[in-house]
Amino acid sequence: MNLTEKKKPIAAICVGSLAVAKSGVLKGRKGTTYRFPGNSRQAQMRSLGVQVNAQSRIIEDQNIITSSSPETALDVAFRLLEKLTTTQNMLELKTRMGFSTD
C-alpha cells in the first residue's frame, strides 16, 4: 500500500508538485505549482491530468497539499503539522514561534 492508499499526508512546494504529479497520485485531482515563467509548469501539471488552479497559492485535495512558490513553505508546514497532529497543537506552535494565529 502506498501513502495515498493509506491516506497519509503528502506535501509539495513549488515545482516539487511536478514530482508528485508525475507519480500519478494527483491525476484527476486539484493541485498547483510554480506560476512563472509563462505557466509552463502549470501546463506540465495539466498534461499529467491535474486540475490546476492557477490563482491559488496553496491547494489541499484530500491528503495532498501543493503550493505555487517557495514563499508558501511555512504555510504548508503548518498545514502539514495540523494534519499530522491537531489544530490546537499547530496553533500553539505558531504562537510560540511568534506567528499570528488569526
Describe this structure in words.
- The mean pLDDT is 92.
- The relative contact order is 0.18.
- The chain is globular and about 40 Å long.
- The protein has four helices and five strands.
- It has one domain (10-96): Class I glutamine amidotransferase (GATase) domain (Rossmann fold), CATH 3.40.50.
- α2 links the parallel β2 and β3 (51-52).
- With 102 residues, the chain is of the alpha/beta class.
- α3 (73-84) crosses α4 (87-96).
- The strands form two sheets. A three-stranded mixed sheet has the order 1-5-4, sandwiched between helices. Strands 2-3 form a two-stranded parallel ribbon.
- It comes from Enterococcus asini.
- Residues 3-82 form the DJ-1/PfpI domain.
- It holds the Pfam family DJ-1_PfpI.
